[in-house]
Specification:
Order of helices and strands: HEHHHEEHHEHHHH
Number of strands: 4
Strand content: 5-15%
Number of helices: 10
Helix content: 40-55%
Length: 230
């Protein structure tokens, strides 16, 4: 009898479903649904110039004078608060329900410059502040669509609603001042701003920006969170 020939076994192919394929990383909930106003300052990955750190109060005088002229030259207390266009914006929102784009851009530019000078004075970086470039200080302050996003009456009472924040910020700013003095000593010996102290000072600046955006710049109606983190 002829020998039986065995049929070759079929190898099963495993087919990967589309669902098993690598999916893109999900956006973190905090980033997707966070507060619209934010601030980030890049942590220096190198040692700072110790000489610049030691003489920072003197080196900051010229840029502080320039910033002071801008803050004092916004047309007087009748129309501005520290150079920011506040009363005109409030009246425009109240009667026309509109936030002129170039008013917003002025406030945004001045807020960015003020924050860069603050970051330099607080030893967060040793790069001299630019009047127009973002450098290592990144503000997130979106332009508001006034008719859809802003209540025309709320600006009348925002300063009152923000009083709890003003009280807390007074305490936080005092704490940040003490932290910067300690960081100044650490920078002179190590050239590094301790990361925990750095994050705390940036958090205070972030909190300050959020409250300013709500009560002074009037760019958002979302009440600022009571937190230092992004």
């Amino acid at each position: 009898m002829p020998a039986k020939t065995s049929k070759p076994k079929k190898t099963k192919r495993t087919v990967r479903s589309k669902s098993a394929a690598a999916a893109p990383a999900a956006i973190p909930a905090k980033a997707a649904a966070g507060y619209p106003v934010g601030l980030a300052v890049n942590y220096p990955e190198r040692e700072q110039d110790r000489l610049s750190v030691f003489f920072r109060p003197l080196l900051a005088i010229p840029i502080c004078i320039l910033l002071g002229l801008l803050l004092a030259g916004g047309g007087g207390a009748q129309i501005s608060i520290a150079g920011f266009l506040v009363l005109p914006t409030l009246l425009m929102l109240l009667f026309r329900h509109k936030y002129p784009k170039w008013w917003f851009e002025w406030n945004l530019g001045l807020a960015g410059f003020t924050t860069r000078v603050a970051a330099y004075c607080l030893l967060l970086d040793d790069v001299y502040p630019s009047t127009d470039e973002e450098q290592k200080v990144h503000l997130r302050l979106p332009y508001p669509q006034a008719e859809r996003e802003l209540n025309r009456w709320l600006p009348l009472v925002k300063w009152l609603l923000a009083i709890p924040h003003f009280v807390i910020l007074a305490v936080l700013e005092l704490a940040a001042f003490i932290v910067v003095i300690l960081a100044w000593l650490a920078l002179l010996f190590t050239g590094r701003f301790p990361r925990g102290m750095f994050d705390f000072v940036v958090g205070v600046l972030r909190w300050h920006l959020r409250v300013a955006a709500y009560s002074i710049l009037l760019t958002t109606d979302h009440y600022p969170p009571f937190q230092l983190e992004e």
